[in-house]
Sequence to fold (995 residues):
Amino acid sequence: MSYLDILFLVLPETFVVVTAFVALGFDLTLFRRKTWKARVNTAALITTIGCVTAIVWLWRTMPPTAIHHSEDILVLTSLTHLLKIVVLILTVLTAWISIESEFTNHVGEYFALLLLGTVGMMFLVSSENLLMIFVALELLSLSLYTMTAFNKQNVRSAEAALKYFLFGGMSAAFLLFGFSWVYGLTGEITLRGIGTELANHKMDPLLMAALIMIVTGFGFKVAAVPFHLWAPDTYQGAPAPTAAFIASGSKVASFFILAKLLVAGFAPSAGGAAWRNFTDGWVPLLAVVAALSVIIGNVAAIAQSSVRRLLAYSAVAHAGYALIGIIALGKNGIASLIYYVVTYAFTVLGAFGVVAVVEEKSHDERFGAFAGLGKRAPVLSFCMMIFMLSLAGIPPLAGFFGKFYLFAAALSGWQDLALLWLVILAIAMSAVSLYYYLQVLKQIYVIPGEGSTLRASWPAKMSIVLLAASVVALGLAPNLLLDRLMPAVQRSWAALK
Amino acid sequence: MLAWTVYLSFIGALVLLAVPAASARAARIIALLFALGGLMCALIGAFEYKPEAGIATIYKTAWIPALGIQYHLAVDGISLTLVLLTAIAAVVGILFSWNVEHRAKEFFAFYLALIGGVYGVFISFDLFLLFVFYELAIIPKYFLIAIWGSTQREYGAMKLVLYSFVGSAMVLIGLIAAYAVAGGQTGIYTFNLLELAKFGFPESFQRWAFPLVFVGFAILAGLWPFHTWAPTGHVAAPTAASMLLAGVVMKLGAYGALRVAMTLFPQGLAVWRNVIAVLAVIGIVYGALVALVQRDFKFVIGYSSVSHMGFVLLGLMTLTTIGLSGAVLQMFSHGIIAGLLFGVVGRMVYDRTHTRDFGELESMHLNRAIPFAARTFVLAGLASMGLPGFSGFIAELQVLIGAWQAFPTLAVICGLGIIIGAAYTLRAIQKSFYSGARIDANPGAALLETISVPERIGAVVLLGATIVIGVYPTLLLNLIKSGFNSPLMSPLVKGGGL
Fold:
């Protein structure tokens, strides 16, 4: 295969990289002296054009069968194409929301990093090679660290970035160490190779240690307990669009690759997590992490009085729910996980969009800033209601079907309702979660507030409304996504039950 | 036609959100039109329905085929009865909210959304769909109470919503587990109620799944000791919302318990039947006793609802034709009567006097100031006590006969509950309207505004409904009994027809 062929396969990624440089170049040359508004609008426009081009390209070149390339560094299936499209959509919407908050003067750099982070995600989802997974993950993470620190006027932003970076660097080290052990045990760095090697490999302490380190590394990325401590500070200190991006796009990519890694690569050493009957493997590990995340995330969220911190703890809880999809194994598990994280990403992106708008006007993101929002910004408030209720899992919104599908997959994926304890815990905790989501809605609709009408710029408003509409649409008709997802999962993982 | 009860309600809610904020008058007229539309649909549906038809499918199509979820709307005699109740309560609730001026548009939008969810539960025969509608009805309740309520409204609203949500979480666990168990054995994953009811779950599974799902639903029906959301919620709620809560939403719980828990898990039912019957009777007596000592007028009605819903649950546990149909008739009857009582207390009395404390009401001579309210309350009170000629009599009598066959001791204790029921109702009538204090004690009482036309219409409609059913119960009983003849419900009935 010649280099031209490779370039052809990674054409969407190339589009995005070029877009990043175009955005940077434009801002540093032609638009240097223009107003902030003009610069940010141009950058967002360039981002949109680049990403939409990539989306159209991906849509039209869905591979019917998997394309494996050079040591599985690049594995293209219709599923990875689908996920790249989702990631790109999230990037475009994040760019639109960025128009709303004036937190930095370095517009070009910000958008370039946003796009480079996106490239990292795109490579991440389409790789089945440990080295490439690590490199892509670092590309994504480094972009995110920098984007977190972008608000130079705000000390919290710097603190958040430093915390995020230190925790992130540590977890990357764990991950790499874990990978190296896996390589030492199996002599393979492709997931397929590892899977075949492990099939004849009994569970031993060395492998378990490697698994623990891998789960630690990814547990940080997805903010699962006990690796979640960076999340509240980062969500609070980072500029709103960055926080939105961390919570949405990066979650989708990380969860997908974690699922792929464990379910495709380590299927033979899964183990079991039936109540009082754990058997060695990564399933009991994830089950414990999921249970802790669901409990601690939801309970800690109750005590928050800042919407951003509340969203951070709720993200911890949602990470717990999503992990259940990985534990469920099987095609339904993967499909439910993807459905869940994708709809979650839409929801939380929209919620952060609303936070960004409110914050820009009142410079505050505690509950009080939302008081009486129902009167001041009826459309945004209605969208926020949809987001909050979807996060709480109220039908007919996407969040409900997402949870439902996860739990159904978890119970039907194992014999004798083995995961019933986890599902009961998760459902019980989701009843708790309604309390704090309602606290936000109470501020918006029940508590009378002061202040004038809030006006958001139209791209930000449009992206929020679009997200709310998609949350409703995906809830009412989950088939919109499932009809594409199921066949893609079917084809990509033919071996799975 | 019946499907339009659901659609019209939701369309109405959206229309209300879309109209400009200005006019409260426009909002209530729009809401009333949509509620009347729902009532028309319900009535036409009821006339078109043939009791021989059993479970008549209205609409059925695949919704989420990947998980075997269908969009399946259907009715039988039981759901039709409750749809009619909902339709009447919806219209009357709007009539009794004619004085809502504060954020009227949103009020009626939430109101119609709640109604839409309730209709949806009664006509869904796919469990996933039923659950969607069931939860859909939870959120509007929070806002209705938290924004437009009175006493401790935020507390009452949150308590009610969390209780409902915990209940529905229990139901959800049970349903997903049932789905996984049945699908795992047959290989066909489905949420179709009729299919799942035929499956026959293993007994060990039914043993824990039944109480989970039954109690999950019954929390909303005010099952003792999970009833405590009911009085606080009812009291905190604005009039129309308490009418709907007591009148219709509590029936959602009882309906779900009957339609889902009892049909899916008959063996579990057999195991837990006595326990639940005892809890129901405790609810009857306890609710009545607590109602007897309240100082707040609305709390009396709130606790009386717990007591009356006890009859519904007891009727369900009898598993005889007469007891079961009595339970369903009691759902209808209590829906009408509780709606009327809350209407009188909340709208006619509280909105005028701004107090519900018996001590203060005693000095107001309400029987002279608002005689229409006094007469309505007396009639409603008689109906609530279960006097012959009103629907409550027929319903509670049937439940008692059923209970006599199934649990003789409990039936006797129940009789005690009825006597206390008479006592607290008479006490409330006396304290609120006919206190007999000196005439000129409070000259301000005469200044209360007169009862408005919408209130009068609403009260007459509800009184008419309870009297018509009281005098000619066959009208509904034929429908209800036909509901228990269907292949879905008939295995429940263990004999004892009359």
Summary: The mean pLDDT of chain B is 87. Residues 117 and 133 of chain B are 5 Å apart (CA to CA). Chain B has 21 helices and two strands. The radius of gyration of chain B is 22 Å.
